[in-house]
Amino acid sequence: MKPVRVLVVDDSTTVRSLIRMLLARDRNVEVVGEAADPHEARAAIKALNPDVITLDVEMPKMNGLEFLDKIMRLRPTPVIMVSSQTTRGASAAITALEMGAFDCVAKPGPGEQDSFAELLTAKVKAAAGSRVRLLSTSERAAPSHGSAALSVGGAYRPDGRIVAIGASTGGVEALVAVLSELPPNCPPTVITQHMPATFTKTFAERLDRLSRPSVSEASDGAPLTPGHIYLAPGGAAHLEIAPSAPFRCRLTKGDPVNGHRPSVDVLFQSVAKAAGAHALGVILTGMGRDGAEGLLAMRTAGAPTLGQDEASCLIYGMPKAAFERGATQKQVPLNRIAAEILRITCSE
């Protein structure tokens, strides 16, 4: 197996050296070059033809987003954005993911180098085997709003179910595609998306602007109501559903599960216990196996379950694991998932 060849692009010599050192721990990854700005990076890409590029969001001469756009249009290559944990950095990272970046990692703080190395190495390897997908002009345009609702007759009335969604790598694009097609009175929806700690608030605000339902970061004790979508805060806690009616969000401290906090499995398990058959589980694109056991618990409890199909996934890992575990009743292309959600949850 040939090592994954990586180009590191960052204006900080210290950060470039750190990334090189940490990636060098894995003999299946090789840093073949470094660049301090997009102009150096452009020449390095032509000369080295790397398998994966790590790209700083904020750089001189041309920012990371402008350079990412050029890469995606002129020389499509898997790109992992490396961002500072600031509001500005988080906003730029979310935009980068929508533009076609493979994934984003936050620059490590004190004592976080080992976890950063493990995460970045896993993402680099996954990115090398991914399909780089160019977004067409129509896909980058604002969502159409409502085609899914029209597919179930236009007069959507929720039947009282809770919808639980899990996603990871590729989930930013996938969630925008799904949520932007839901009507204002959509079922109460809870989401766990693997994402750095300071990024989920920015992502929730972005989803809220693009969607007709209200989207917000979940808060402990928030009641689940129709027309509201709740995104698990990154990093600090797991999102669960409290078992007593009326259903409420519950943020719980605890160790990472499947390497993640928040964990999709924790969310799905709680929904299975709290709502049983009065729920719908959906698992979208992502690395690893998180969510497979929880989705199986939901199906065993009588809830219908959906998985994103392989052809439309950036990474088929999580949906594949759920399908192989027998947790997924039906696999659906991304562009049909919103319509399936509404069909299943529509009151007759």
TrEMBL record:
Domain Response regulatory: 5-122
EC assignment: 3.1.1.61, 3.5.1.44
One Pfam match: CheB_methylest
Domain of life of the native organism: Bacteria
Catalytic activity: [protein]-L-glutamate 5-O-methyl ester + H2O = L-glutamyl-[protein] + methanol + H(+); L-glutaminyl-[protein] + H2O = L-glutamyl-[protein] + NH4(+)
Sites of 4-aspartylphosphate modification: D56
Entries under SMART domains matching the protein: REC
Ranges for domain CheB-type methylesterase: 156-348
PTM notes: Phosphorylated by CheA. Phosphorylation of the N-terminal regulatory domain activates the methylesterase activity.
Signal peptide boundaries: none
Annotated family: Belongs to the CheB family.
Task performed by this protein: Involved in chemotaxis. Part of a chemotaxis signal transduction system that modulates chemotaxis in response to various stimuli. Catalyzes the demethylation of specific methylglutamate residues introduced into the chemoreceptors (methyl-accepting chemotaxis proteins or MCP) by CheR. Also mediates the irreversible deamidation of specific glutamine residues to glutamic acid.
UniProt remark on domains: Contains a C-terminal catalytic domain, and an N-terminal region which modulates catalytic activity.
Record protein name field: Protein-glutamate methylesterase/protein-glutamine glutaminase
Native source organism of the sequence: Methylocapsa polymorpha
Gene name linked to the record: cheB
